[in-house]
């Protein structure tokens, strides 16, 4: 086939025009005709395809097949872009079939990879990866990178340099890895998805083939995977890199500038989303440390704390070795910035209040940053979730605080941020969130009551002020537990005979805690005390009766059930003694 003939020059011109229409002119298409340029490009590609079919193959059948494959690929992408997915898949499939005998040859491998990726689930991503790995080894050996698909419709003078070919091939390889990450994520093979995502992000940095905002969001998302595996060093590194790369997108513009307002809004949102990932990092690190340090009753295990502090130097050395082994991001021009960002927050478990407070403050700063965008007006659910995370940061910091008064103040901060939201929220539209807030407020008041009792006991007795405070906190805890339980009732205010699995444990815990709270109310009025004991007995009995009717519930509340049975055995005797003191008229 005479590639230098007039028909061939005309075919090349049409091919170039089609690519320009698709890549450049299509961005200017009006909303009324969003695919106008794409359709024009498709018509040109079809004309070139007809010209190829009419050409005499001569001794160059293979060359003709490869050029047909290029056109099938371009038509497949075109149909996919215009939402004609079935037709797009057919063209891409024909492309891979034409290339199959030559898929690892230098002039075909790059096109084969891109066609496989473009086919989506219908293609063979692992096959594409195998092809690119083989091709990579081949051209690294002889120094000749594979041809770019566009070169099949270029004259010799227009062919790309080896440097440009290499750059485009590396981009195709990276895109294949990114595609594999998505496939594995879809298949819920999270570990493989994370590996491919990490490699993709690393290569994008190495070859400068990324958009800063998109790269930063992907890195921040990957950090949450590492967080789920308690790989805090890797998670922090992803977040630090995300923050550094995001800054390349420029300063987030002020809202007063109306130019490109949507772009500004998007930037502010992405910045807030990365901040939320940082919040989760700080919160998870603190909560994991708490699990490591707490004893059987949820307080600090001092002996365990001393052991871990003694091991700290060894742990730091091991972390340094792990860092050297870890697959980290970064090229020389951003490494220093990433390391500086990492130094702002630890990646090792905090072992005392001061260390915990440093992590807490970083998390709290990101809370404020996230709330700047996710405000309650317009982003109700997001705003409340951020406030809940803020509350959780205070809760876990309180664990490290030895002074009970200061611990109480931390819980009061939680009350102050959660209670107004709970009061303003309409349960009709936000039932799940309302329940979460009610239960958390009840638990927080309960915790504060226990702390006030402990403080009073240390002072060798409860004075009238402390008694009043303890009763007030207990009654507020009961109020919110009851609000939570009322939310489970049907429209006729009837409590369900059988609870759904997702609310079974919180409902039983609420019943158990209300029973305990009534028994802790302090009063000098013996008759009132007897009433409180009777109410407490009723709540304990409810829990026991429910578990007898629904044996599957036992495994969910084993500890509470055991204690309830114990109290049901003790309370009647105590009540009889109190009645005896009050006389026959009670």
TrEMBL record:
Keyword hit for Cell inner membrane: no
Biological process according to GO: central nervous system projection neuron axonogenesis; microtubule cytoskeleton organization; mitochondrion transport along microtubule; neuron projection maintenance
Cross-referenced InterPro entries: KBP
Keyword terms: Cytoplasm, Cytoskeleton
Subcellular location: Cytoplasm, Cytoskeleton
GO CC, one annotated term: cytoskeleton
Keyword Disulfide bond: no
Location of the region described as Disordered in the Swiss-Prot/TrEMBL record: 120-161
GO molecular function: kinesin binding; protein sequestering activity
Compositionally biased intervals (Basic and acidic residues): 149-161
Family: Belongs to the KIF-binding protein family.
Protein's name in the database: KIF-binding protein
Organism: Anas platyrhynchos platyrhynchos
């Amino acid at each position: 086939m005479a590639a230098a003939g007039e028909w061939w020059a005309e075919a090349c011109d049409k091919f170039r025009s089609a690519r320009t229409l698709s890549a450049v002119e299509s961005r200017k298409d009006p909303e009324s005709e969003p695919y106008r340029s794409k359709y024009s490009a498709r018509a040109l590609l079809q004309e070139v395809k007809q010209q190829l079919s009419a050409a005499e193959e001569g001794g160059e059948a293979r060359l003709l097949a490869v050029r047909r494959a290029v056109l099938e690929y371009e038509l497949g992408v075109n149909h996919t872009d215009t939402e004609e997915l079935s037709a797009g898949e057919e063209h891409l499939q024909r492309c891979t079939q034409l290339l199959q005998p030559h898929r690892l040859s230098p002039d075909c491998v790059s096109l084969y990879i891109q066609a496989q990726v473009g086919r989506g689930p219908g293609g063979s991503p692992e096959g594409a990866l195998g092809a690119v790995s083989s091709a990579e080894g081949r051209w690294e050996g002889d120094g000749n990178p594979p041809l770019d698909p566009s070169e099949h419709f270029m004259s010799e003078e227009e062919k790309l340099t080896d440097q440009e070919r290499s750059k485009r091939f590396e981009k195709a390889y990276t895109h294949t890895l990114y595609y594999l990450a998505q496939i594995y994520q879809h298949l819920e093979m999270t570990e493989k998805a994370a590996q491919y995502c990490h490699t993709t992000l690393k290569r994008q940095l190495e070859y400068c083939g990324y958009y800063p905002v998109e790269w930063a969001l992907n890195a921040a998302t990957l950090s949450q995977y590492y967080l789920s595996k308690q790989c805090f060093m890797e998670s922090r590194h992803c977040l630090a890199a995300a923050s550094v790369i995001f800054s390349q997108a420029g300063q987030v513009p002020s809202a007063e500038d109306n130019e490109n307002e949507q772009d500004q809004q998007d930037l502010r949102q992405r910045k807030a989303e990365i901040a939320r990932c940082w919040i989760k990092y700080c919160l998870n690190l603190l909560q994991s440390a708490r699990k490591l340090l707490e004893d059987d009753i949820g307080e600090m295990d001092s002996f365990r704390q001393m052991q871990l502090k003694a091991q700290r130097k060894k742990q730091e050395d091991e972390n340094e070795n792990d860092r050297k082994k870890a697959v980290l991001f970064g090229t020389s021009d951003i490494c220093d910035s990433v390391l500086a960002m990492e130094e702002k927050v630890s990646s090792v478990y905090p072992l005392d209040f001061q260390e915990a407070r440093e992590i807490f403050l970083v998390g709290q700063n990101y809370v404020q940053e996230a709330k700047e965008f996710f405000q309650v007006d317009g982003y109700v659910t997001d705003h409340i979730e951020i406030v809940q995370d803020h509350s959780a940061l205070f809760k876990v910091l309180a664990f490290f605080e030895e002074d009970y008064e200061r611990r109480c103040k931390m819980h009061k901060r939680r009350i102050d941020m959660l209670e107004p939201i709970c009061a303003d929220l309409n349960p009709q539209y936000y039932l799940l969130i309302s329940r979460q807030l009610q239960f958390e407020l009840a638990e927080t008041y309960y915790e504060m009551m226990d702390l006030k009792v402990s403080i009073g006991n240390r002072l060798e007795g409860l004075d009238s002020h402390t008694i009043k405070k303890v009763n007030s906190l207990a009654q507020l805890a009961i109020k919110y537990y009851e609000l939570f339980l009322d939310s489970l009732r049907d429209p006729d205010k009837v409590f369900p005979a059988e609870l759904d699995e997702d609310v079974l444990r919180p409902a039983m815990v609420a019943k158990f805690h209300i029973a305990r709270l009534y028994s802790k109310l302090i009063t000098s009025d013996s008759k009132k005390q007897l009433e409180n004991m009777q109410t407490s007995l009723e709540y304990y009995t409810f829990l026991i009766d429910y578990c007898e009717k629904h044996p599957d519930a036992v495994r969910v509340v084993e500890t509470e059930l055991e204690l309830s049975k114990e109290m049901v055995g003790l309370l009647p005797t105590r009540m009889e003694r109190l009645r005896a003191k009050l006389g026959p008229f009670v």
